[in-house]
Amino acid sequence: MRLFLIGCLAALTVQTALADNGRLIATGGASSLEGAAGGGITPWAVLAGYGEQHEWGATAFATTVNLADYRLDVAGLALAYDNRVELSFARQRFDLGTLVHRLNLPDDHLGQDVLGMKVRLLGDVIYDRLPQVSLGLEYKHQNTFDIPRLVGARRDSDVEGYLAASRLWMGAAFGYNVLVNGSLRYSRANETGLLGFGGDRRDRRSLLKEGSVALLFNPRWAVGVEYREKPDNLSFAGESDWADLFVGYFPNKHVSVVLAYARLGEIATLADQNGTYLSLQGSF
Amino acid sequence: MRVLSVVLAVLLSACAQQPPRDDSLYRDLGAMPGITRIVEGMLLNVARDPRIVEHFRRVDIQRLRNKLIEKFCVEAGGPCTYTGDSMAESHKGKNVSRSDFNALVEDLIAAMDKEGIAVPVQNRLIARLAALRGEVIEH
């Protein structure tokens, strides 16, 4: 994995010569937990990096979420071309903390890989009257399926789709720009897939609403909120909708940082899993 | 008395035809002196911008400066008349790409930052100019 990442980074460095960064700063968004360009817990309709027409864009990111009893670490990459197509990869590792000893679990963590593709269907997030709309597909593979199987998950991999719309409203809040995103996801992933897909209670995909609003104090600073609806497929524990409050900083077109307070609620029987979300992104 | 009523009628009809223009953006940008500094600052940034400077190689910069000042003034609601060619006409055959347009927006923002223009005021001007993008790019 590490070698793979280093290899990709090296390839991206070579790619830098081709990336012309033709889009405006922050319009590539941050990297979401599943690797797609967007906010932290939901994707946006924008594509990774800063490539405009006939240009490449690429990002690499690392994210850590420290919750009351768990910790989620994610690393990944995204590559986009023509401001049209984005390919992404994310590897997630969810540390189960004290739950391992309390329940005598066979693994001390849950792991998942996500391969994503996003296609911009229409619109431009800044310049068009209509929102920018993109269609995304994600292939997810749960790598540590013993625990998910134990708690009733039906499968260790699945494909899900989402339709995302994003639009910048210029000067909408006291003269400051506001970015609004909404998406609909069709998924049966338990805890985004960390606990497998489908369950004893429900094995069909659900239509899930996601959204975020960000206020841009200037082109480099943003604050906002995000929300993500989640299904409830497993009977052993409840699954909460996720929300967070974030600050994003884009000092230039090569680096961005997102700090957030995440409210992830109940996860695998433990309630009040709230904590800090920190994500660092490099753009090439 | 008759003269007065005629004058009043003329004044009122003039008012009816031309409602007082909202020139708050024009004033917030620093009126003519402010807009002049912003346009000149933007053109200086363009001159140093390898992404788009080629597009301006064979352009009469003095004339461009004057027309841009007029254009910005009009778009900001100021008391000016734009005497240049239409946006579509002046960019015809120039093949301005989406990236080129964004580069110019960045050079403009940098110029406004240097002038200390508040972000909400910048956003208003950019919103007005962004509406012209369709006439500028890909012709």
Automatic annotation (TrEMBL), chain A:
Q: What is this protein called?
A: DUF3034 domain-containing protein
Domain of life per record: Bacteria
Signal peptide interval: 1-19
Keywords on record: Signal
Organism name: Pseudomonas trivialis
Instruction: Give one Pfam family, short name only.
Output: DUF3034
Q: Which InterPro entries match?
A: DUF3034
TrEMBL record, chain B:
Task: Fetch the SUPFAM superfamilies from UniProt.
Answer: Globin-like (SSF46458)
For binding heme, which residues are annotated in this chain's numbering?
A: 91
Alphabetical keyword list: Heme, Iron, Metal-binding, Oxygen transport, Transport
What are the names of the required cofactors? heme
Which CDD domains does the record cross-reference, listed alphabetically? TrHb1_N
Under the heading InterPro entries, the entry gives: Globin-like_sf (IPR009050), Globin/Proto (IPR012292), Hemoglobin_trunc (IPR001486), Hemoglobin_trunc_I (IPR016339)
User: Signal peptide location in the record?
Assistant: none
Report the GO molecular function annotations. heme binding; metal ion binding; oxygen binding; oxygen carrier activity
Explain how, and how many, cofactor molecules are bound.
Binds 1 heme group per subunit.
The record, for Pfam families, names: Bac_globin (PF01152)
Family classification: Belongs to the truncated hemoglobin family. Group I subfamily.
Report what the protein is called: Group 1 truncated hemoglobin
